[in-house]
């Protein structure tokens, strides 16, 4: 039984941050509202033209307007809250333990439920919360498993003290790699420093 990562990483809108910043979201919507007004008015003018008579033509015009509204709302939401990334698989050694494989299966099922839920609904919110919790559980279980594997292997490597010190330093650097010391709210200040 191989334990290669079963869930690829992916991105989605950061809902929590968006819910925490309603004023900024409304401000971003107002700033670009004229673009969507123009798209909706253009669709209305196009629907009033006599050459748009079939349902397919009308549906195409309405779908273009709906796409403009969707881009408007999504763009404002991304500008307000950004996106959040989910690391998919554990990326560690092969998982041979049945309970870790079962946890990964539960995580994948929770992701499928969350993706199938209607966006913006309470069901969607709770499905994504369940998925996040299961991702944390799988990562913690994978870390514990890797530590057990690493400690078992390091018992055999204790004779090579310099090599062991290098492996430990690399493991610490790998653990620190995902953390950034930069404050996202101060990015313009950082950019100004290098001009």
Notes on the structure:
- This protein is mainly α and 195 residues long.
- It contains eight helices and two strands; from the N terminus they run βααααβαααα.
- A two-stranded antiparallel ribbon has the order 1-2.
- Helices cover 70% and strands 4% of the residues.
Q: In this structure, how is the largest beta sheet organized?
A: 2 strands, antiparallel
Helix/strand class: mainly alpha
Number of H- or I-type helical stretches:
8
Extended strand count: 2
Mean pLDDT: 79
Summarize the helix and strand pattern as letters: EHHHHEHHHH
What gap, in angstroms, lies between the N and C termini?
54 Å
Strand content: under 5%
Taking all Cα atoms into account, the compactness measure Rg is: 25 Å
> Helix proportion of residues, in percent?
over 70%
Quick overview of this protein structure:
This protein is mainly alpha-helical. Helices cover 70% and strands 4% of the residues.
Keywords:
70% helix, mainly alpha, disordered N terminus, two-stranded antiparallel ribbon, 2 strands, 195 residues
Topology:
Layout lengths: L9 E4 L1 H6 L1 H10 L1 H16 L6 H27 L1 E4 L11 H19 L5 H36 L3 H16 L10 H7 L2
Antiparallel strand pairs: 1-2
């Amino acid at each position: 039984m191989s334990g290669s990562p079963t869930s690829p990483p992916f991105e989605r809108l950061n809902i929590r941050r968006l819910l925490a910043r309603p004023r900024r979201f409304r401000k971003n919507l107002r700033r670009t509202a004229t673009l969507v007004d123009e798209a909706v008015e253009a669709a209305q003018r196009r629907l009033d033209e006599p050459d748009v008579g079939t349902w397919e033509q009308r549906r195409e015009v309405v779908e273009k307007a709906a796409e403009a509204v969707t881009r408007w709302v999504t763009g404002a939401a991304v500008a307000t809250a950004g996106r959040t990334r989910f690391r998919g698989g554990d990326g560690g050694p092969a998982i041979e333990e049945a309970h870790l494989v079962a946890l990964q299966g539960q995580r994948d099922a929770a992701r499928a439920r969350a993706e199938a839920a209607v966006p913006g609904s309470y069901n969607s919110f709770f499905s994504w919360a369940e998925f996040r919790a299961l991702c944390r559980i799988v990562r913690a279980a994978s870390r514990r498993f890797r530590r057990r594997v690493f400690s078992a292997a390091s018992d055999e490597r204790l004779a090579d003290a310099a090599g062991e010190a290098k492996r430990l330093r690399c493991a610490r650097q790998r653990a620190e790699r995902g953390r950034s010391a930069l404050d996202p709210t101060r990015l313009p200040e950082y950019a100004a420093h290098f001009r």
